Each structure stands twice: as C-alpha cells, then as structure tokens.
Amino acid sequence: MSNLPLPAAAPNPPALAPTPTAHEPAGPDSNCFSAEASAQMERLVADFGRMYQERNDALNEVARAHHDALLRLSRAAEFRDDDTGVHIVRIGYLAWALALHLGQPAPWALLLRQAAPMHDVGKIGMPDGVLKKPGAFTPEERAVMNRHPQIGAEILGRSRIPLFQLAAEAALTHHERWDGRGYPAGLAGDAIPLSGRIVAVVDFFDALTMDRCYRPAYTDDRALRMLGAQRGLAFDPHIVDVFMAHAQALIELRERVNSGDLGMAELSGPDGPTGLTQPQTRPQALTLTLAVAASQMESHA
Question: Any idea where the domains of the chain sit in the sequence?
C-alpha cells in the first residue's frame, strides 16, 4: 500500500455574482417586479375576482330559479288539498319563528323559513281519491299516503345546496313521531332531525285551524289542547312547550299571513317580516312557568 500523502483539498471557489440579463437590470432591486409587471398582475387579480363574482352570481341565480320552481310545484300540490294554497306560506313563517324561539341561529331559521314550505311537495304524487278522502283510510290507502314524504324528498333531490338539503330533510321526516310510531322510517326522539320536529308541530297546529274538505277549522284553543295532548307522544315535548309559551305571538304571525300582509314573495327575503321583532328566548324560569301553565290547561281540558 502506498504511503504517499493525499493532495490537500482545494479551497471553495469564490461565489460568482449572477450575470445581469437584458431583461433584468443589475443592482440591489434586481429581484423586484417592474411597474409594468405589477400592473399586469393587478389586472389579472381583478379579472379573476370579477370572474369569481360572476360565477357566484350565476350559481345564486340558478339556485333562486330552482327554489322558485319547487315552491310553485309545492303550491300546486297544496292547491289540491287547500283551496287557497296559503298553508305552505304559514308553515314557512311559523317554522322560522318557532326556530328562533328555540334559540336556533338566525341564518338557520331563515333557511328553514325557505325550506319548510316545500315539506308536502310529495303530495303532488297522491291520487285525489286518497288525498281528498273525507273518512278513514283503508290499509292500502294509508300505504299510498305514507309514501308522500319519500316522494317529496326524491323531488327535492340529493342537492349539495344547503337550502334543498334542508327542504328534503324536512319533507322526509315531518311525519316521524317522537315515540317512534311515525313514518316513513319509524325514527324516534332526537334521531328525528330538528327541521322535521319543528315542521311537524307547526304543520299539525296549522292544519287543525284551517278548513278541510272533510271538516271545518278547529278553534285555536282546541288546537292548542290537541297539540298539548301529543306532547312527548307525536311531538318533541320541548318544542311543544316553546310553541305553547309563544302561542299568542305565533297566532298573530299566522294572521298576518292570512291578511295578505306576508306572502310567498317575502319568504325568501334575507330579513324577518317588516314590523316583526325577532323572537327572543325567554328566561328559563319564565319558560318553565308557562310550560307548567300550559300543562295545567291541558289537564283541565
């Protein structure tokens, strides 16, 4: 083996300064964009922002058109069961107000106000002999009628738009019962989505207080007693308690719809109805007191 010494490592070569190009002037500011390039970049950003806004406006317009079409279809279905077609408008406002009284966020309550009127769109698929029958259904007719929530959910579709997701959810679940004896899925308790539980209560009360082809309207007091009797059976007991506690305000809101002060056009507005103060959650003690009073009223009915 050779014992010759290894040559010393060569020192690091000195760093070479980059050579300026014809498009990049040398100097301390050589890495900055030129004024022309900066202006072009700003124009590109502005163009992209405008394109993004136009895209969002187009999507919103499509969603509005879709909503309008479904509302019209819902109203067509309602006209088959209600000569005025105003039931679905009342449901929208009552569901919205009840959601706020329950302490739900205002944006969600607004979405429910727009979604709830579509809860019975599936009735468009019901034959008149079933939909308008004055007496009790046969088992076969009941099976047909019980399909309308699923038909409604199918009409509303599997959309990625939150409004139509909520509308499909309410349509599918507003005939479920708190005790699990409802349809179509036999859900019970909190397994029923909140939208379905709210719409079930306001739909029940409003349907009782309107004329039907097979009976005249019940009085508000009688309808409230009937609603209270289903507390914890058909309906979420907490939602019934809150409805009872705010019954007068909810009835006044219903009358504004009946008088024409509030209509279909206002349902999709971003704010609450003009002249209507957003419902406030009552102190817990007062709510409980009113709930107890409502229960006593039911027991003496």
Answer: 41-299
